[in-house]
Write a structure and sequence with these properties.
Elements lengths: L8 E5 L3 H12 L3 E5 L3 H9 L3 E2 L11 E4 L4 H9 L14 E4 L5 H12 L4 E4 L2 E2 L2 H5 L4 E5 L2 H13 L3 E6 L3 H29 L4 H10 L5 H12 L8 H17 L5 H18 L7 H8 L27
Parallel strand pairs: 1-2, 1-4, 2-3, 4-5, 5-6, 8-9
Antiparallel strand pairs: 7-8
Helix pairs in contact: 1-2, 3-4, 7-10, 7-11, 7-12, 8-9, 10-11
Length: 321
């Protein structure tokens, strides 16, 4: 917990779906939070809950700790170092910048070096989870950067979910997140394959996945994706296009370190096929549809009441004032 007399002024740059949900948790914990987003409407949910609106990204530089969530490496560089970015003003700079995005180590390292000249430390803190996972309080993050900056920011990072892990200096957290998402894609494809095999053998998806989730092979992830697989709900929590981006980055890292990844390479091409077939903006669970098509199986929603396994008892709430 953060004691009131130890509290820092926080900022949030980039209030998309993830930024809004994580910012909501900080507000629910009573944090002093200012927010900025290029599209003001995306910041409105947090402003209504008590966040202070910033008119420019540079205005957030007066905050002690600033979180950032953006979509790409180029977005990170622009949002921080660009002519209208966080560090574009000549005055104050935050003590710590916490980047929760999934970007390349190269882009992160560039930002790290340039903001250090202003006395700002960068923590790479790519998160594991999506907006629903954040709401359930089960989001996690790997964090890397200066240890003293992590010690300062850890109480606020812990408010975002079920805990963070300090994994070292520099860009180590970027590698952890890429490894995590490579496994995410591999498991999702494997889950699609065995589910299609079970259904083509005459077993309902609901029954098969219920059995799997009760076994030692079940996991928080398989439980969470069960409603999507059973009811063919491909509304995006994480799109196929974004997963492809992470596979591009992850396999590039594997080449750099001379690590063969034959399974991940095959899944990379399957994800590419999913995007090429028009599922780029769908949830990556659409791998199930692609697998069924390959097996000549016509999928129909089972329209079943199934739990996603997320206990939302940890969900924080903020009332409007």
């Amino acid at each position: 917990m953060v004691r009131h007399n130890d509290a820092h002024r926080l900022g949030w740059l980039g209030t998309g779906r993830m930024g809004v949900e994580m910012g909501r948790r900080l507000l629910a914990a009573g944090c002093d939070l200012a927010v900025y987003n290029r599209s003001v409407s995306k910041a409105e949910p947090l402003i209504r809950l008590g966040a202070k609106p910033a008119e420019t990204a540079a205005e957030l530089a007066a905050r002690d700790i600033v979180f950032i969530t953006v979509g790409s490496s180029d977005d990170l560089i622009s949002a921080v170092l660009g002519p209208a970015g966080l560090m574009s003003g000549p005055g104050a700079a935050p003590a710590v910048l916490i980047d929760c995005s999934t970007v390349s180590a190269e882009a992160s390292a560039r930002v790290r070096v340039e903001i250090a000249d202003r006395g700002t430390a960068l923590l790479a803190a790519p998160v594991m989870g999506n907006p629903k996972v954040v709401r359930a309080g089960k989001m996690t993050a790997a964090v890397s950067g200066p240890r003293d900056a992590f010690d300062l920011a850890e109480p606020y990072l812990n408010l975002l979910g079920s805990g963070v892990t300090y994994v070292g200096d520099g860009e180590a957290a970027r590698t952890v997140k890429l490894c995590h998402n490579l496994l995410l894609g591999v498991v999702a494809q494997s889950l699609a394959e065995i589910t299609v095999l079970a259904e083509k053998s005459g077993i309902s998806r609901q029954a098969f996945l219920e059995c799997l989730n009760k076994s030692v092979m079940g996991s928080l992830f398989t439980g969470y994706k069960t409603p999507a697989y059973v009811n063919l709900d491909f509304e995006p929590t994480f799109t196929a296009t974004l997963l492809r981006k992470d596979f591009d980055l992850g396999l590039a890292a594997a080449r750099e370190h001379e690590v063969p990844m034959p399974v991940a390479a095959v899944v990379h091409q399957l994800i590419q096929g999913l995007v090429g077939r028009g599922y780029g903006d769908s949830d990556f669970a659409a791998l199930l549809q692609q697998q069924a098509d390959s097996a000549g199986l016509l999928l129909v929603s089972e329209q079943a009441e199934v739990s996603d396994g997320l206990d939302t008892s940890d969900t924080l709430s903020v009332t409007n004032t």
